[in-house]
Amino acid sequence: YTLANFDDQAYRKMVESVQLIDGEGNQVSVIDFATNRGRNPEPIKRVDNLLGMNPASQPLENLNPELVKDLQGLIDSSGIAENLELEFDGDQINLQIDGRLLFQSGEAVLSEAARLVFADLGKMFRRYADYRIAIRGHTDDLEINTLQYPSNWELSAIRATTVLRFFLSQGIDPERMTATGYANSLPLVENISAQNRAKNRRVEFVLEKEKDN
Questions:
Q1: What span, in angstroms and rounded, lies between the C-alpha atoms of 117 and 136?
Q2: What is the pTM of this model?
Q3: pLDDT tops 60 at residue 56
Q4: For residues 81 and 75, is the Cβ–Cβ distance under 8 A?
């Protein structure tokens, strides 16, 4: 537990309420325990630092997987950060890419901009070969009815498969990847405006690390 403002007496009282039994059998607060052993408890440090359980001189950071850091670096340096969104929740990494960057309306042919972005992603996916890659295609709620794409289900599925085939060409193991079309069944926002529909037209990568047996 890291408490940033040691001057706030409520914070101090909260930390002092953490009690333990010292080597002589006395019940003392974690702050007294730290002070008696020459560890400066001001400003408040993590409890495990005060107890001497963490040998690091700096508090532990909220560690993100290296892949998350590299993906964020790729986004920051891409010049198209507004078209990409990265989220990390537990064991799952979610990268969403605006469909307008990837395909022409009603089409499933990758744009040149998409190929550039995916080439960089491919290098990253090869580097982190212990991650599974679920590729998900999404559309807005505007219906399509062409000979090639009778509905948004076909369009979203073909787009996801097109992306998968690109990564196959980049040397990604096919057993790591799946491709699924969701049509307009999982919108990010309500399809009530052109701007909202644009957000919903997207390709999503869900990355999960392979579990050790």
A1: 17
A2: 0.69
A3: no
A4: yes
